[in-house]
Amino acid sequence: MSKLKLIFSLCFVLSFILIGCGDRPSSKPSATSTKSTNTKTINPMNPYSTNPMNPLTNPTNQLIKTVKGLSTPKSSIAYQLTLIKEGDVEKLKACFTERQKKSITADAVTQGKKEVGKMKFEELYNSEKMGEYAGKKTCKIKMKGGRTLTTLVLTDGKWLADTIWFK
What we know:
By secondary structure, the chain is an alpha+beta fold. It has 2 domains: 1-59, no CATH class; 62-161, Nuclear Transport Factor 2, Chain: A, CATH 3.10.450. It contains 7 helices and 4 strands. The chain has a 4-stranded antiparallel beta sheet with strand order 1-2-3-4, covered by helices on one side. Helix 3 packs across helix 6 (106-116).
């Protein structure tokens, strides 16, 4: 019986540490508190913490904000979507294969912003299918409805789009 109590108390302590109950904001400030009201402790495991990277407290799309550029097919599409919404033509050109770079113009990006700007990332990127063409790794990106969004080609460690998918 004492082992059971020990295990229970260890679980309770661990859950308290992981949840970080001490960081939950209080509605009533303590009169004897010496802690400044301007400083906040950030506990990444606490859903009540004010961590800007916590998707529960920061409603913006964390996937788009924390992309790793062109290192994976998913992050490549997310990064391209971010650049389209920002209207950054020059950075967007770097996300496409050589044969497509001349087609990335300010007009095309403006048109793409109108079309893609109202769509969610989850609608654009539903699945991926890896393959190979002409000795290079490829990744076919499928949209939510099953249509092909684009094919990415792995070039120098970067997943570059081989079609202008945002028009």
